[in-house]
Amino acid sequence: MLLASDCMHSIGMLLHKDDEMGKEYGLTATQLSDFRFLNEMHYDDRYGAYFDFGNHTEKVRLSWKEMINGNGYPSRELVRDVLERPKLGFVPHIGYVSLFPFMTKIIPSDSTILESQLDLISNKSILWTEYGLRSLSRSSSVYMKRNTEHDPPYWRGPIWMNMNYLILSALHHYAQEGGPYKDRAQTIYSDLRSNLVSLSLTYQITPE
User: Fold this and answer.
1) Which of 9, 11, 36, 166 has the fewest CB atoms within 10 Å distance of its CB?
2) Phi, psi of 162, deg, nearest 5
3) What are phi and psi of 156, to 5 degrees?
4) How far apart are CA 52 and CA 92, in angstroms?
5) Where are the domains of the chain?
6) Mean pLDDT of 21-31
7) Which GO cellular component does the record give, naming just one (predicted)?
């Protein structure tokens, strides 16, 4: 939302659109980039990570059930069973969503939260692989599990190059900034860049 509102505000400025909507986008971007406000809403000290906040329960499963289709014939479908009423709170699954503040470079370079983000990125038991960063921690209860019968786990483990690019960009940014984590950011940047380049070359299609 920060990136979207900032882009809309920038486009408005470029086109000299000084109307109320343009100003609103600017105010929204300013609010969402407030580091203190961000931490109050989304940072969990217990995990050292950012999480979505909303109604959530871990008591969910997919089950095969007999259904009657539109023609009146029975069929089997894989449906979601919610076994416990969702409660308002953090959604405790570490993945790309936990790195969005890092990707948008709004974490101060001297913040200990930046160190926590670097820990998440480089931890082989969570996101790090030799091919790039997973979209979801392999320790998550929903890692590589379907959301529904027709919704494969696209964002529940597979590696997405666009997200890895944004993370790589942020690592490069922090490697250039002053602060106690500059050298570590540079090391992780070099290792991740090497992994992503190797992956791209491995799957490159050679024209016939």
Assistant:
1) 36
2) -65, -40
3) -115, 40
4) 8
5) 1-33, 35-52+93-204, 60-89
6) 82
7) endoplasmic reticulum membrane
> Which pair of structure tokens corresponds to residue 193?
């860049």
30-58 pLDDT, tens digit each: 888 889 989 999 999 988 899 999 999 98
Q: What is the DSSP string of 10-78?
A: HHHHHTT--SHHHHHHHHHHHHHT-HHHHHHHHEETTTTEE--EEEE-S-EEEEEEEEE-TTS-EEEEE
Q: Supply the DSSP symbol for 192.
A: H
Residue range 135-140: mean pLDDT, rounded: 94
pTM, full prediction:
0.83
User: Under a CB-based contact definition with an 8 Å cutoff, are residues 164 and 133 in contact?
Assistant: yes
pLDDT for residue 207: 45
**Residue 151 carries which side chain, given as an amino acid letter?**
D
C-alpha 118 chain-centroid distance = 14
* Inter-residue contact 128 to 138 (CB < 8 Å): no
Q: DSSP H helical segments within 104-145, as ranges?
A: 112-122
Tokens coding 95:
């993945």
Contacts of 79 by beta carbon, 8 Å cutoff, 6+ apart: 62, 63, 65, 67, 148, 149
Q: Cβ atoms within 10 A of the Cβ of 108, count?
A: 12
Mean pLDDT confidence for 139-165? 91
Task: Pick the closest to residue 134 from 154, 159, 117, 156 (CA basis).
Answer: 159
What spatial distance separates the first Cα and last Cα of the chain, rounded to whole Å? 43
Q: What is the chain's length?
A: 208
